[in-house]
Amino acid sequence: MTSVNASPRQTVIDWAGQRVSLETQWLNAQARHVERPLMVFLHEGLGSLAMWKDFPQQLCVAAPCCGLVISRPGYGQSTPLADGSRWGSDFLERQALEVLPAALAALGVDPQAQALWLIGHSDGASIALIYASVFSSHVTGVVALAPHTFVEDLTVSSIAALQAPAIATGLLMRLERYHQAPKPIFRAWSNAWLDPAFRDWSIVDRIPHIDCPVLAVQGLNDEYGSLEQIRSIGRALPKARMLELASCGHSPHRDQPQVLIAAICDFLNQNEGDTQ
Question: pLDDT for 180-221, tens place per residue?
C-alpha cells in the first residue's frame, strides 16, 4: 500500500478551563477510507510525536492501518507548559480520561465507527490501559510497550538519577530538538514521579475492567521497570499476550523494531482478521 501522510498540524481542545493546542499527525491516511483499524500512538513520559521517529509509519505500512500520533499538552510542538508547572498524582488518569477523549473528538475519531487500537509506550502505555479500562466499548485492542502499572523502586531511582545536574543538562539539550519548552515538562514529569504521594499510585485494580485484547511488551534490560509490570497485566487478564524481549531496554520500538512490528501485526491479525 502506498503511504499517504499528512504533515503535523495543531488540533485545539478545551482542557482544564483552557484552549490547548496539540501537535497531531495522520499516517497512512487513505486507510481511514478502506475500513482498516486506526492505531493511536501515545508517547512516553519525555516523548513526543517526533520522538517516535519512523516506527509508527513502519507499523502502519506493515499492518496496514491508518495511524494517528499525538503530542500531549506540554510536549513536542503542543502548547508548552508554564515554568514551575506541577502535576498531581492523577496526572496519568487526567491524560487518559480528559485529554485523550477530547483529542479524539476534536480529530473526528468515532471509536464506534472504526476499530481503535492504542499503541502506548511507558507513560503512554499506562494512559492506554486506563482509557481502555473506562471506555471499554471504544477500544478494539491495546499494545502496551514497557507500561507502568504501579510504582517500583527501580523506576523511582532511574528517574531520580536524571535530575542530577550533569545528566539533566545533557538530557535537556537533547530534548530541545523535540520540544518547544523541554525544561518545564522535564521538571513537571520527574517531580510527579518522585513525589512521595505518588508511591502508592497503581492501576492494577483497573486492569481487570479491560475487555479488549492486550499485548504487553517489555525488554529484559528495561532500566525503568521490572517484568512484574507486564506480569501484573497477565495475572489480571489471563488472555492477554506477554512478550518479553531480549537485548531490549525501556524502548522496544527502538531496540527491537522489526521483532516488535512482526509481533504487533500477528496480534492484530489474530484479533482483527487478515490485514493483508
Answer: 999 999 999 999 999 999 999 999 999 999 999 999 999 999
0.90 exceeded by pTM: yes
Strands 9-15 and 214-219, by their bridges, are unpaired
Question: Would you place residue 29 in the very low, low, confident or very high pLDDT band (cuts 50, 70, 90)?
Answer: confident
Which CATH number fits the domain that encloses residue 226?
Answer: 3.40.50.1820
Residues 258, 232 contacting (CB under 8 angstroms): no
Secondary structure class of 82 (helix, strand, coil): coil
Rounded CA-CA distance 251/34 in Å is 31
Residue 148: CB atoms within 10 Å = 24
- The closest alpha carbon to 42, from 136, 144, 154, 137, belongs to 144
Cα(168)–Cα(224) distance, rounded to whole angstroms?
A: 17
Q: How many structural domains comprise the chain? A: 1
Instruction: Tell me what pLDDT residue 33 has.
Output: 59
Question: How far is residue 2's CA from residue 25's CA, in Å, rounded to a whole number?
Answer: 17
Whether the CB-CB separation of 19 and 12 falls below 8 Å is answered with: yes
Residue-wise pLDDT for 97-130, tens only, equals: 999 999 999 999 988 888 999 999 999 999 999 9
- The boundaries of the domain holding residue 158 are 9-272
43's grid cell: 508517547
Beta bridge partners of 24: 9, 70
